Amino acid sequence: MRRMPQRKILNPDADSAAGRAGVAARTNRIPLHFGRFTIWSLLSTVCLLFLVSITGCEGLASGQQLSVREMRHWMLPSEGTRVPAPRAVHAAKNGELYVLDNAGRVLVFNPQGKLQRQWWMPEYSVGKPEKLCLLRDGRLAVADTHYHRVVFFDTAGNVVGMLGTFGRGPSQFIYPVALAQDDQDNLYVCEYGDNDRVQKFSPSGEFLMQFGSFGTKPGQFMRPSGIVWHDHKIYVVDAFNNRIQHFADTGKYLGVFGNSAEADLNYPYDLTRSPTGDFFVVEYGAGRISKFNSVGQLVGRTGGTGHGAKQLDTPWGISVDEHSRIWVADTGNRRIVEWQL
Q1: Are β-strands 187-192 and 175-181 bridged in parallel, bridged antiparallel, or unpaired?
Q2: pLDDT reported for residue 62
Q3: Positive or negative, the Cα torsion across 195, 198, 200, 205?
Q4: CA–CA dist 239, 219 (Å, integer)
Q5: Which residues, at least 6 apart from 21, have a Cβ–Cβ distance to it below 8 Å?
Q6: Dihedral angle over CA of 155, 157, 163, 165, nearest 10
Q7: Alpha carbons 98 and 175: distance in angstroms, whole number
Q8: Span 59-70, pLDDT tens digits
């Protein structure tokens, strides 16, 4: 195995007062609440140290180099003297792009990158949300990670509902992190924090079932940080285990998706499915995008860690719109990136 040069792992929350005060005990990637989750903290820290030791690789394990035909990027609007970093993106069918940032805001842009509207999360001093999903009925669901809940907004930013409380039981969360919806309007929520699992809820918010647990075995997760539903299957990015797993939407484990276990994924953090049926994975550790076909074969890759036009730095989120444009929350570079392959 090649040894890669070390590089610093960015902590977006370190820019905030709460982040500076708590950075020694907590980050938004590896929560270190020693009084509550000692085992999780220890295992997560070991995993992160391992990831740091191998980050920086920009080569391809297999597949071809994908060509980027068009590209552009822009920064988020400032908050005081600070320019926040994006954490999550969701491309809506009407062309709007929904973005979460590490200041605690939800921002909505038009396809040209012009800000249309924005609002704040109900609370954000403890930590910032990580992923969002525009539901079929027009509501926006946000994984309010550090408040142990899902918050629902209308498209104007008004809170219209919440789901979840702190805990390990049904309809409870430790750190909810990612969401997906099926064609029956059921909602799937991933969480981490030594209780790594996926919970399924009815359209009215009733708990239906759960699957997965914390660990490295088949069907287990170590930070399931991205999720896609398609054709009665659930695809989950299993970040610390460097793989994509898939399940029936009944919770039955189907295996590692295609060849993702051999694709040398480097801390995959989010995934999305394109209108043509391909899957795109953004890799936090490698600063790149990997493309898999519908059966899970690696097609190719693009990007690499850095600050250039075709590079990414610790990206957190990815989405593909109806025109197959790829949108990335390029967190370390504090910008939104649009690539057309």
Answers
A1: antiparallel
A2: 56
A3: positive
A4: 13
A5: none
A6: 160
A7: 21
A8: 445 569 999 999
> Per residue, what are the HEC states of the chain?
CCCCCCCCCCCHHHHCHHHHHHCCCECCCCECCCCCCHHHHHHHHHHHHHHHHHCCCCCCCCCEECCCCEEEEECCCCECCECCCEEEEEECCCCCEEEEECCCEEEEECCCCCEEEEEECCCCCCCCCCEEEECCCCCEEEEEHHHCEEEEECCCCCEEEEECEECCCCCEECEEEEEEECCCCCEEEEEECCCCEEEEECCCCCEEEEECCECCCCCCECCEEEEEEECCEEEEEECCCCEEEEEECCCCEEEECCCHHHCCCCCEEEEEECCCCCEEEEECCCCEEEEECCCCCEEEEEECECCCCCCECCCCEEEECCCCEEEEEEHHHCEEEEEEC
In this predicted model, what pLDDT tens digit does every residue of 92-112 receive, in sequence order? 999 999 999 999 999 999 988
Beta bridge partners, 201, equal: 187, 207
Listed as ranges, residues in the chain with pLDDT below 70 are: 1-63
Which domains occur in the chain, in start order?
12-53 (no CATH), 61-340 (2.120.10.30)
Residue 95 has what pLDDT? Answer: 93
CB 267 within 8 A of CB 284: yes
